[in-house]
Automatic annotation (TrEMBL):
<keyword id="KW-0560">Oxidoreductase</keyword>
<dbReference type="InterPro" id="IPR002563">
    <property type="entry name" value="Flavin_Rdtase-like_dom"/>
</dbReference>
<feature type="domain" description="Flavin reductase like">
    <location>
        <begin position="131"/>
        <end position="289"/>
    </location>
</feature>
<dbReference type="InterPro" id="IPR050268">
    <property type="entry name" value="NADH-dep_flavin_reductase"/>
</dbReference>
<feature type="compositionally biased region" description="Low complexity">
    <location>
        <begin position="86"/>
        <end position="109"/>
    </location>
</feature>
<protein>
    <recommendedName>
        <fullName>Flavin reductase like domain-containing protein</fullName>
    </recommendedName>
</protein>
<feature type="region of interest" description="Disordered">
    <location>
        <begin position="75"/>
        <end position="122"/>
    </location>
</feature>
<feature type="compositionally biased region" description="Polar residues">
    <location>
        <begin position="75"/>
        <end position="85"/>
    </location>
</feature>
<dbReference type="GO" id="GO:0010181">
    <property type="term" value="F:FMN binding"/>
</dbReference>
<dbReference type="GO" id="GO:0042602">
    <property type="term" value="F:riboflavin reductase (NADPH) activity"/>
</dbReference>
<dbReference type="Pfam" id="PF01613">
    <property type="entry name" value="Flavin_Reduct"/>
</dbReference>
<dbReference type="InterPro" id="IPR012349">
    <property type="entry name" value="Split_barrel_FMN-bd"/>
</dbReference>
Length: 297
């Protein structure tokens, strides 16, 4: 009897132990499954990100501007939204939409960079990855070719000097209809976008090339800016009326391989919405807002 009772007790203890082991194993399995799902979700997100980037690049080639790129490719090694094609900006999930189709934009939480300059790649790709880690200003440049308005979004805009007159510069990948317009008219406007959804909505419109309907639905004026379209409305904080620098020998245009560096003299500052905000930025193929401040203690 005692022996049978001992066997039954050992049997119950064995079942309990086995159950605990099984429960522990199942818990570990669930955790492994969760980790695997998270890993594959991350891989999927990165895959979608890369597909969009490739689609933008193909769009640039199709429109004939890339030899250039904004948001990642035609943006010269330093500009992710420098070309008329979707640069980034550069830049940019609009490759399947028409250039004038309104898009819905929203502000999200900060997203860590995806660019990895240390991954095995050609030096040009490593430099491109490094430049994606640096924020660039996003502006819209407009000019006119005969009676035809032209425009492009770019991220290579910068102030060159303030004295004796203010000079600005940017670069454009060739061929470019906007560059042709600037060369012919020698006048252009630079529009400073607000760092919000309103600014993005205008800026992103001009990242996909100079189609016939790209200006449809936009308010603009050409009567006071030597023919260059002056964009109006929300999202446009200021505009700079410019002319090509007349100084010899380059007269404001310097060709460097497949890009042209443009130097302009600012003639007038024209207020727009004058929103009390920082301008729009672009980094790692996404539009960005300026956020936190790093202060000294």
């Amino acid at each position: 009897m005692k022996a049978a009772r001992a066997v039954r007790q050992l049997s119950r203890l064995g079942c309990c132990g086995a159950s605990r082991v099984t429960a522990g194993w199942l818990g570990d399995a669930r955790m492994v499954m969760v980790q695997k799902r998270g890993f594959w979700a991350l891989r999927l997100m990165r895959g979608v990100h890369d597909v969009v980037g490739h689609a933008l690049t193909l769009g640039e080639y199709a429109t004939g501007v890339r030899s250039s790129r904004v948001a990642a490719s035609s943006i010269t090694a330093s500009q992710d939204a420098t070309s008329e094609k979707p640069t980034s900006f550069q830049q940019s999930t609009l490759s399947s939409q028409s250039s004038h189709t309104p898009s819905s934009w929203h502000t999200s939480f900060p997203i860590p960079p995806t660019a990895d300059p240390t991954s095995p790649a050609a030096l040009s790709e490593q430099i491109r990855s490094i430049m994606r880690l640096l924020p660039h200003s996003v502006v819209v440049c407009t000019s006119t070719h005969g009676q035809t308005p032209r425009a492009m979004t770019m991220s290579s805009f910068t102030s060159l000097t303030l004295s004796p007159t203010p000079l600005i510069s940017f670069n454009i990948a060739t061929p470019s209809r906007t560059l042709d317009a600037i060369i012919e008219s020698r006048h252009f406007n630079i529009h400073i976008m607000s760092g919000d959804e309103l600014g993005v909505q205008v800026a992103d419109r001009f990242t996909r090339g100079n189609t016939d309907d790209v200006f449809d639905g936009l308010e603009y004026d050409t009567s006071k800016t030597d023919g260059a379209p002056l964009l109006r409305g929300e999202g446009i904080m200021y505009a700079l009326r410019c002319r090509l620098l007349p100084d010899e020998p380059t007269r404001g245009l310097l060709k460097v391989r497949d890009h042209v560096i443009v130097v302009g003299e600012v003639v007038e500052m024209i207020p727009g919405s004058c929103a009390n905000k920082f301008g729009l930025s672009y980094a790692d193929r996404k539009y960005r807002q300026i956020g936190s401040v790093i202060s000294q203690d």
